Amino acid sequence: MYEDILVPTDGSAGASAALDEAIDLADAFDATVHSLYVVDVAAVGPDTGAVDLAESFERMGEEATEAAATRARDAGVDATRSVATGSPHRAILDYADDHDIDLVVMGTHGRTGLERYLLGSVTEKVVRAAEIPVLTVRASEEEGEE
Ligand code: ATP
Ligand code: MN
After folding, report:
1. Cα separation, 20 vs 116, whole angstroms
2. In what order do the strands lie in the sheet with 78-86?
3. Which of 46, 57, 59, 120 has the most other CB atoms within 10 Å of its CB?
4. What is the pLDDT of residues 85-130, one digit of tens each?
5. 68 near 14, Cβ under 8 Å?
6. Residue ranges lining ligand 1, Cβ < 6 Å
7. What is the 3-state secondary structure (H, E, C) of 65-109?
8. Model pTM?
9. So where are the chain's domains?
10. CB atoms within 10 A of CB 84
C-alpha cells in the first residue's frame, strides 16, 4: 500500500515524532523512508557574500537527514536522505512528485513556530496542496517544547 514514505525533517521534536511513526509504517508495509531537509531560501536571505548561512543550514540538513536515515536503518527499514533548497512546502511537494511518494508524514509543529497554532505553516501548506495523504504527528510532552 505504501512503498515510499516521505518524512520532511527540520530537526525538531515534531519531525522526530513523525519519523517514529513513519518507521513503524515502513516496517509494516516494507516501505522505504525518505528523509528530506529543505534549506529555506527565505530564512537564508539575500546573498551578502559574508557569512555563508546557506552552507551552515545545508550542513545542519545533512546531519538531520543522516540521523533520520540511520534511525530507520537501525530499525531494519530501508532509508534514503537528501537536502534540497527552496521554499520548504514547495520543495516537499516537488520531492513527493519526483519520487513517487505515497504518503507524507510530518510534525504538526517544527522548530520555529508557536504551539498555539494548530499546525505550523509548512505543514499547513503541504496538507492544503498535497494530492497524496499527509499524516501529521504531534510531539509528546516528553519530547520537549520547541
Ligand atoms: P512556522 O515555521 O510556521 O513558524 P513551525 O516551525 O512550528 O512553525 P513547520 O515549519 O510547519 O512549523 O514545521 C512542521 C513540520 O514541517 C516539521 O515537523 C517538519 O516535519 C516539517 N518541516 C518544517 N520545516 C522544514 C524544512 N525546512 N525542511 C523539511 N521539513 C520541514
Ligand atoms: Mn518552521
Report:
1. 24
2. 78-86, 32-40, 4-8, 103-107, 134-137
3. 120
4. 999 999 999 999 999 999 999 999 999 888 788 999 999 999 999 9
5. no
6. 8-10, 12, 14-15, 18, 36-38, 40, 88, 106-107, 109-113, 120-123
7. HHHHHHHHHHCCCEEEEEEEEECHHHHHHHHHHHCCCCEEEEECC
8. 0.94
9. 4-144
10. 16
The three grid cell numbers given for residue 70, joined into one nine-digit string: 540511520
Centre of ligand 2 to C-alpha 60, Å, is 14
**Cα dihedral across residues 57, 143, 66, 87: positive or negative:** negative
Residues whose CB falls within 8 Å of the CB of residue 131, separated by 6 or more in sequence, listed in order = none
With CA atoms as reference, report the closest residue to 28 among 100, 76, 91: 76
Q: Which atom of ligand 1 is nearest to the CA of 146?
A: 7
Average pLDDT of the chain is 93
Residue 146: pLDDT over 50? no
Ligand 1 atom closest to Cα of residue 108: 14
Residue 143 is classified by DSSP as G
Task: Please determine, looking at this structure, whether the domain spanning 4-144 carries the CATH number 2.30.30.40.
Answer: no
Average pLDDT for 39-68: 86
Nearest to 106 by CA among 24, 27, 5: 5
